[in-house]
Amino acid sequence: MNKRDLIVELSQRSDLTQSEVREVLELLFAVITEGLGKKEKVIISGFGSFQVKPRAARIGVNPKNKEKITIPATQVPTFKPGKKLKEVVCEGNELSS
Questions:
Q1: Which end of the chain lies in a sparser environment, N or C, as judged by fewer CB atoms within 10 Å?
Q2: pLDDT score for 66
């Protein structure tokens, strides 16, 4: 399912038009992105949480010439699924509202 499919599905399940759903989704993504940009943890109860975690520097290999290179430390966004999401994905259960 891509973003467009998600918009269509949400529109069909609600009283919102596709353009209204698109606007709400864009706002949701912007709020999550801004929160992560401030290194805040974004928790969506029942779904999961997003946060920024440090990734240590490490040694890698350049695939072109097989030389070892140092990959610098960085910050990466992560997602941890909530209990309900895990149950649906791992056990194949239906999601109940």
A1: C
A2: 94
